[in-house]
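ok trying again, last paste got cut off:
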Amino acid sequence: MPLIPLNIPNGAHRNGTDLMSANRWRDVNLVRWHEGALRPIGGWRQRQSVNLSGVPRSVLAWETNADVRFIAAGTHDKLHIIDAGGTASDITPNTFTAGRVNATLNTGYGSGLYNDETYGTPRADADIVYRATTWSLENWGEYLLAMHSDDGKLYEWQLNASTDAALLSNAPTNCSAMMVTEERFVVCFGAGGDPRKVQWSDQENNNLWTAAATNQAGDLRIQTNGVILAGLRTRGQALIITTEDAHAMTYQGPPFVYGIERVGTSCGMVGAKAAATVDAGVFWMGDRSFHMYTGGQVQTISCEVGDYVFSDINKDQMTKVNAVVNSEWSEITWFYPSANSMENDRYVSFDYVENIWTTGTLDRVSGLDKGTFRYPMYFDASGILYEHEVGTSYSGATPHAETGPISIGNGDNVMNVVELLPDEKTQGSVTAKFKTRLYPNASETTHGPFTMTNPTNVRFQGRQVRMRVEGAGSDWRVGIMRLDARTGGRR
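nice, full thing came through this time. structure:
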């Protein structure tokens, strides 16, 4: 009989039932697809453990005019600077108000109206009252601008590690976030405690915020049912994302300076750090789907693992979701807390060039793309900083990919598989297991693991089979495997 090629499309598919992932990769961890081949992601190693108070949910890396590299890391109660040698300095402003490590829910005693609903039961609307605290971190030239989502003030740090970040004079207070536009305006969102107000400084002057005929400072209120969470630069515009919708902010010059236009509805973001911007546009996670803006109108991205992600995410702590860019592999990764975790312990990645989704388990709370530093770097909740995409060590985990059910029988025939012809770059680095069934509801039998040789002797039978490949310690590749199978009759 001809060989049976296991020509499985790239990317993970984990929507709906197990059978709906037939002939696709379903259960994956620490892998990616590139140029048609399945391979492990790069490993990681600890760069340093720094003394950070709280969880570093917001980070920024940059290089000064004197070629000195820094990482800024903001937690719920501190702002830290880490130099290239690993020395951390506390530059928390002395007028600073601390925030929260976790989101706080409206489920306690006293929430809602008196005599409303049944005594002693949780309220029907358990909405988030207070989000997990984040920082907005931006560069103003070589200086650092910082704003804490609960403190709401704008601070500037001028590179002296022994001096705290200082309050920026005249800037609005009680804000939720800020950004610096391509035209060199500082923009504050939720200015003055109005969650829909957008206020900007004069151009090239972050100390001038009062509008006049002689400057370009100004403000606008956006028409939305939501509240502003973040603003991001993208190809000649800024994109403002709220809990409900998205708005493009475009520079028009005097006298109006900026114009704001809604470009998407029902596309709100789950948290202030759940969006990332790349050359292709802005990508973010909503509460049931993923969205992108590449100009024109916001689009919802078809996600082949969305059912898996959104059915096992801690909805009470979704504001901790953190989006990180890995430009070398054209990936955006969202780290999120699974249903039984208070902190980020899983991830979902999107290759926006090849339109491929992957998932996995990894406890990271924030991260940086490579550029200022040689490797991408991610923090865990304890403040340990890791260099990623280096080596093949995974802290004891093993990269793997397992398919959904693949039919190998012809109608009612049972197939006897006697050989595997592997398509694997470094034979001996990857093992394969096969899980077979004779009937859809029958118990599953596991065969292997088999170490790859060419050919590999195997012995199993069934009408459908799952294949699992896994391996650690090398940069392996897996292409199209083939099975030598013979008809075994009917059962």
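cool. Helices lie at 306-311. Residues 306-311 form the longest helix (6 residues).
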